[in-house]
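Title: Prediction job returns without error message
Component: structure pipeline
Severity: low
Priority: P3
Assignee: unassigned

Description:
Job completed but the reporter wants confirmation the result is attached to the right record. Sequence as submitted:
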Amino acid sequence: MVPMWFLGAFITGFFMPRTDGVHAGSEEALGSLFIHNTVQEAIKMVDKAYKETRESHKLKLTKRALTSADLLAYFKQPMAETRTAVRSAEYMETALGLILRNANHIHKRSLNASDLLTQSDLDTISRITGCSAALLPPVCEDNCWSNRYRTFTSVCNNRKIPRLGAANVAFARWLPAQYEDGFSLPKGWTRRTLYSGFRLPLVRSVSNQILQMANPNIPLDQDNTHIFVQWGQWLDHDLDMAPQSGSVQTFNDGINCDKTCARKSPCFPIMIPPNDSKFNDTIHCMPFFRSAPVCGTGELGSLFGYVNIREQINAVTAFIDSSMVYGNGKSTANRIRNQTIDLGLLTINQNYSDNGLDYLPFSRVQLESPSAMNPNSTRVPCFLAGDGRANEHLGLLSFHVLFLREHNRLARELKKLNPHWSGETIFQETRKIMGAFHQIITYRDYVPRLLGPAAMQKYLPPYKGYNDSIDPRIANVFATAGFRYSHVTIHPIVYRFNESYQEHPLYPNLPLHNSFFSPWRIVDQGGIEPILRGLLANPAKRQEQNRMLVDDLRQHLFELMSRLPLDLASLNLQRSRDHGLPGYNAWRTFCGLSEPKSVKELRAILRNARLARNLFSLYGTADNIEPWLGGVSEPSVKGGSLGPLLACLVGQQFKNLRDGDRFWWENQGIFTASQQQALKQVSLSRLICDNTRIEELPQYVFRFRPYPEGYVNCTQIPRVDLSAWNEDVEVTPCGSVPVVAHAHFSICKSSVRYTCASGWKLAGRDTIKCLSDGQWNSAPPSCTDTSTNEI
């Protein structure tokens, strides 16, 4: 039904379709009023849906009635700054939908945004919805300290294009998107639509026929440990997250995506094929929510420079910067920091410890925590970390605990070396070191085992320095297909071992699906050490073409409180369609590989006639196969874990991440030469030694060897020598830095910056500089007691 105020605008002629590119309304003020009212209506609709979603989640949690889809939504929800960006995009998208729907109803013909809206109209919509903030270019500081530390959002990493690689911007497109309607609707939105002459199969049918494990015996990878797989997920959470809408219902009519099989954005349900053995005849679909859009894309895209294409938002920074530890914005960073003492520490759990070793703090929003009950029917709340996905399963959660401890260990050591540093300086220096640790372990130890020597030589030859013309953003195909390879290498058992690397007598091994959202198993069942030993001493699952995805992920994903589980294979395939990714052959061409046009040609690539026939039977053509499925179906390259297609996509992404990062650890001026040499000693084995009571472990933790082959004592594993971070308080040629009572200071080249201790206020300029004549350019500041009433 068309609102009366909308009809009035048309009747009085103040919002007529444009002709010859000029708005037809004769009174601009009333035209602006119309736009304003439309946007306010959209805002009310979106806010109502967000509120009802939140209240529904609380009610379900209280009644212990959360579904598997609720659990998925829990860590796919946009948070903090991302939530603001996503909500603004949905305000804009909904407002445009109102305008187009009502205009088309009145004019009885199909109009588009450019027919109706002037640039002034768009500016108004952008301002009211908050999208304009995301489109404004940020101002980048250019001083010694801004060149020393990353921003939390990674804004200004690239000074030419400040948002390149930052959190809450669109994923990169390496190939043009393919949407059903050309700009927004997912592939497969309507069943009758043909692609390359064929209908797309139901993703659950593909999962059932191609990806299921035909044999209960898990094939084992004799080269890679399961901690190699866990590092991949840990790293992935540093690089990408495509959040879904903040609502689980449609904005204009309140349809709940959990309760309908209708395709109506943001609902894009996964249909259940007939005779699916996992589901009864009353269940017709699995809930699926579309990834959130970026402001100004989709319908409005052409008017914002996106050529009418819906783009998905990457909620996290693209760079390898340990953002899963520290968050991707100031609000999250502030939540996880210890604000009670000025020592640069992360906050720890005040209720529990692991015999003196720290745990993450609990989430403050305990009423919304979807964690599982322990056997005593009490709930240990979800842990709070820099990334909202931390509680997904025990392996991931153990890494979060490990790196919380490592941050605080480093911070304490740096404070001993530099007692004049403030807590902020300690925090930033520690964060910087942690980022380097992740970069080194990833590129030295992890990526070569993925790519193999040929792809390493092609994509990652020796580092030559930062290149600001390289786009470091995460590619949509990498996030949605390429780096989801590890899903087919996950073992269905969470092994928990004692000090002798045998099954723990008190905390036995677990089926993987019993580890989802179960922080109580960390607190009540031996901490993270049994889990880490299990990851270290067991091989990953080996990818085989007839045994791809274990049932814990394909039949029991998040089957914690609900009898309706999710299917990770179906989710991956549906997400590919939601994001408009081109098919397998398009990406093979992108990588300079052959395009299979027949079963015979695909058989030659896959070296598997049966798999090639089955894929053609489902898809009709290799053009339509999703890149993730085509990629994991290929045999691995020599010396690597990926097939040729995924080795290309992953190799190109890691090249961009390294060469397009101004703060890359090897880039000149980021670390001193002595610090670079010290950093090279880092190893994941040493990090485990330093932050657990594990004393014996593999020196090369990603390479599988049965215990005790290749295992060493921690005393044999080198440490990173932090003495290279001992700051010389002498500044040439001025001599010693002037000491200020109740103040800390840090030195950057010839400048000194002061900050006052808590309870004291800075008086004077915070920075002094040493001049070439050996004099300071000004007197140092002083710190005054804020507790006094003196003026």
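Comment from assignee: result matches the submitted record. The longest strand covers residues 220-225.
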